[in-house]
Amino acid sequence: MADHGRRVLLLSNSTQAGHDYLEHAAAPIQEHFPAGGRIAFVPYALHDWDRYTAKAAAGLGALGYKVTGVHTGDPATVVAEADGVFVGGGNTFRLATGVHRTGLADVLRERVADGLPYMGASAGTVLAGPSIRTTNDMPIVQPPTFTALGLIGFHINPHFLSGAVVPDFMGETREQRLAEYLEENETPVVGLPEGSWITAHGTTVTAGGAHDAVLFARGAEPGPLPVGSDLSALETAPHVGVAGDAGC
Amino acid sequence: MADHGRRVLLLSNSTQAGHDYLEHAAAPIQEHFPAGGRIAFVPYALHDWDRYTAKAAAGLGALGYKVTGVHTGDPATVVAEADGVFVGGGNTFRLATGVHRTGLADVLRERVADGLPYMGASAGTVLAGPSIRTTNDMPIVQPPTFTALGLIGFHINPHFLSGAVVPDFMGETREQRLAEYLEENETPVVGLPEGSWITAHGTTVTAGGAHDAVLFARGAEPGPLPVGSDLSALETAPHVGVAGDAGC
Questions:
Q1: What percentage of chain B carries pLDDT values higher than 90?
Q2: Which of these, A195, A229, B17, B22, has the minimum number of CB atoms within 10 Å of its CB?
Q3: How far apart are CA B153 and CA B205, in angstroms?
Q4: What pLDDT digit, counting tens, does each position of A137-152 carry?
């Protein structure tokens, strides 16, 4: 992967309680996308693509951008004509199915390697990792593969929330789920709380936003990644794909 | 599917707060498996199969059963020599990978159709449905297919818990996740709270346990399924497989 031109902004969440859509991340978004630019929006994570694109157009429109849904034309062409791409949140399995079936996965890998700014939120942030194995979402559809875009060389768990959520409830905590992930996988995971984000500019990868992130790595207790931390050392893992995810 | 000999017991959870493993379900288990019987245990949902089998042996041993892990010999042979099978909870993706890779999925479908009592808990309950699309688990490994055993003709969401769990947290509620499932799938889902279970005896399917279940069906608001409800009318859907899950 040609990392040196990479410009990636990965938000844990697109809507923060008490704020309009994307409002909490206005500053990093305006640093990320060129002023007044055309943004190709990938709406596949939700069911109603037109409605979702209208929502993205309103949120990014308030920041001065023009939004086009990739489903309104040939997806590769819409991306080719854009100054940036935004992959919205929703269901990660539906999103992965969409980008693989349309061929957009390969298009995005190539264009981001060439320097096209990529922004993801929630499912769109998971998709930027090596695989979708650290999504919180329900597997409502079966994508052809769990392999994701591999724009960054570690996994992200968005909407990260520590601890048991309901007294006496026996479902797993997020930490237990990620410990199970580490039983099966070597690539580390950054637990990214709501209100926080990660930026990757070339080979520089940085934690940003309102709250510290949490590192989950094999053989170590979970540990804090304070806002401002350099995360580039986590990119020791292969950037694209995970053993066993090739599908067929 | 030869439903008429079917004997299936599907627990939402294996451990209830304040109780030992399986203790809360002692009564239905002792109705389900023949007294003193040999139980084949499927431990694939957790990482340490020996340790998990020891736990199942202790829990079922307290109820008079003898437990053998299917991994301690040829899985089909262990099942063939058993009076019942118990598929334990853990991670549904890891479980599905295990039963498909070993060929146990086909063995279990055949033996349960022939009358072998099947008990599942949590992931083992999801596995009894048409697909794993309604699991709560993190997709830490990619199974060859989302298609499950199809022992019952509707989906179950175990550990069902209504409503938002943390104020101002933007992750989806369980209801939102199941609404997204219904955007993509027609088979109804029974949300099964902890402490509750479903029994299928031949063509009779019944809600049991401590708390009412919740029905999620396309085009309808979620509605209660009181303890004792006849669920057999939900089995209108195809019993095995879901369109698009065939994988390769």
A1: 86
A2: B17
A3: 10
A4: 999 999 999 999 999 9
The Cα A235–Cα A213 span in angstroms is 16
Q: Which residue has the tokens 């627990």?
A: B11
How many degrees, rounded to 5, is the angle at CA A170 between CA A166 and CA A175? 80
A196 close to B (CB below 8 A): no
Burial (CB count <10 Å: 0-12, 13-18, 19+), residue B35: exposed
CA dist A56 and A68 (Å) reads 9
Q: Note whether residue A16 is domain-resident.
A: yes
pLDDT for A166: 60
Instruction: Provide the token pair at B236.
Output: 């209108």
Q: Residue A83 belongs to what domain range?
A: 3-234
Rounded CA separation A96/B125 (Å): 26
Contact of A146 with A242, CB cutoff 8 Å: yes
Q: Closest chain B residue to A46 measured between Cα atoms?
A: B180
Of A11-25, A72-86, A228-242, the range with the highest mean pLDDT is A72-86
CA dist B234 → A72, A227, B63, B151, B177 (Å): 38, 50, 32, 13, 20
Report the CATH number that the domain containing residue B12 is assigned in CATH.
Answer: 3.40.50.880
Tokens coding B180: 């997204």
Separation CA B200–CA B5 (nearest Å) = 10
Q: Does B244 touch chain A (CB under 8 A)?
A: yes
- Say yes or no: B87 contacts chain A, CB-CB below 8 A: no
| Within-domain flag for B248 | no
Answer for the pair A127, A87: CB distance below 8 angstroms, yes or no.
Answer: yes
B12 close to B122: Cβ distance less than 8 angstroms: yes
Q: Sign of the C-alpha dihedral, residues B20, B22, B28, B32?
A: negative
Show the tokens assigned to B159. Answer: 């550990």
Instruction: Answer yes or no: do A161 and B166 touch at CB < 8 A.
Output: yes
Number of domains observed in the structure of chain A: 1
Residue pointed to by tokens 């929630």: A122
